[in-house]
Amino acid sequence: MSATIIDGKAYAAGLRARIADAVKDLGQRGVRPGLAVVLVGEDPASQIYVRSKARLTVEAGMASFEHVLPASTREAELLALVAKLNADPTVDGILVQLPLPKQIDAQKVIEAIDPAKDVDGFHPINAGRLMTGVPGFVSCTPLGCLLLIRSVRRDLAGLDAVVVGRSNIVGKPMAQLLLSQSCTVTIAHSKTHDLRAVCRRADILVAAVGRPEMVRGDWIKPGAIVIDVGINRVPNPSAGEGKTKVVGDVAYGEAARIASAITPVPGGVGPMTIACLLRNTLEAACLRRGLAMPALH
Ligand SMILES: Nc1nc(=O)c2c([nH]1)NC[C@@H]1CN(c3ccc(C(=O)N[C@@H](CCC(=O)O)C(=O)O)cc3)C=[N+]21
């Protein structure tokens, strides 16, 4: 048996097309959603990622505002920019790319973003809303993961879900979303005893640890749904000296022989993150104007 490959790239393209249709409808009412992305520093991987976000934002018919600041930027300058974006009526969503340089307290910056414009869902107000079951912005990567899980299995009630990783941006909100779907949720992490045995219990396994191919085939319960959040750039000597490739947190070839469904890397969760960012920006634009969020299916 070989797993269904969950095509996140295709799902994300479809979602972006539906978002673009909704944005077109808003345009007829004189509304153009806008997303501001702030990048501090010149990390090449971050630059590529921010550029593709800007391109896809414009493709969806939204306004994209890019702010690239030098790595030496002071915390006060970044906070001043956030305050300006909070007050700017053409900006519906604000994303400050993480990680930030070490002289800047990222938590302070996150808490400075107006929760109504916090399309990343990182503000404690939105994290708290998710935890308490109140509508709010949900972090894009976990939201994308849930959409992919539900594309292969609609009803998740009673399933054992294991999330490996406890970050505020993926692991914790992912666990909350799975709980909201009535899964029995375990959050595992680097200190978990016998991680392999814990993972083997999972009907739904979400790997978000940032360690290349850590989850092996024999960690997976036969028939499980496996979601790989990892994006790890590793050497690829078979392609030539100095070449690299991107792999996930799951040993894909092994896992695909055991799982019932699995996301590839690249082409799985990554593209869904950006599509969900656009979805959240659309929602922010609607909410701020007292309009109903259009259905996207
Ligand atoms: N405030 C903030 N919000 C974020 O959402 C955020 C962030 N900071 N910092 C960086 C991470 C990373 N991230 C990705 C999104 C999409 C892909 C993506 O589309 N990846 C493609 C291409 C992968 C490749 O080939 O490099 C794929 O997986 O198929 C990757 C990475 C969002 N992040």
TrEMBL record:
Organism name: Microvirga puerhi
Matches recorded under PROSITE patterns: THF_DHG_CYH_1, THF_DHG_CYH_2
Alphabetized GO MF terms: methenyltetrahydrofolate cyclohydrolase activity; methylenetetrahydrofolate dehydrogenase (NADP+) activity
Function description: Catalyzes the oxidation of 5,10-methylenetetrahydrofolate to 5,10-methenyltetrahydrofolate and then the hydrolysis of 5,10-methenyltetrahydrofolate to 10-formyltetrahydrofolate.
Keyword Transmembrane applies: no
Family: Belongs to the tetrahydrofolate dehydrogenase/cyclohydrolase family.
Substrates-to-products reaction catalysed: (6R)-5,10-methenyltetrahydrofolate + H2O = (6R)-10-formyltetrahydrofolate + H(+); (6R)-5,10-methylene-5,6,7,8-tetrahydrofolate + NADP(+) = (6R)-5,10-methenyltetrahydrofolate + NADPH
Pfam families: THF_DHG_CYH (PF00763), THF_DHG_CYH_C (PF02882)
Pathway the protein takes part in: One-carbon metabolism; tetrahydrofolate interconversion
EC numbers on record: 1.5.1.5, 3.5.4.9
Keywords assigned: Amino-acid biosynthesis, Histidine biosynthesis, Hydrolase, Methionine biosynthesis, Multifunctional enzyme, NADP, One-carbon metabolism, Oxidoreductase, Purine biosynthesis
Gene3D superfamilies the UniProt entry points to: Leucine Dehydrogenase, chain A, domain 1 (3.40.50.10860), NAD(P)-binding Rossmann-like Domain (3.40.50.720)
Name by which UniProt lists this protein: Bifunctional protein FolD
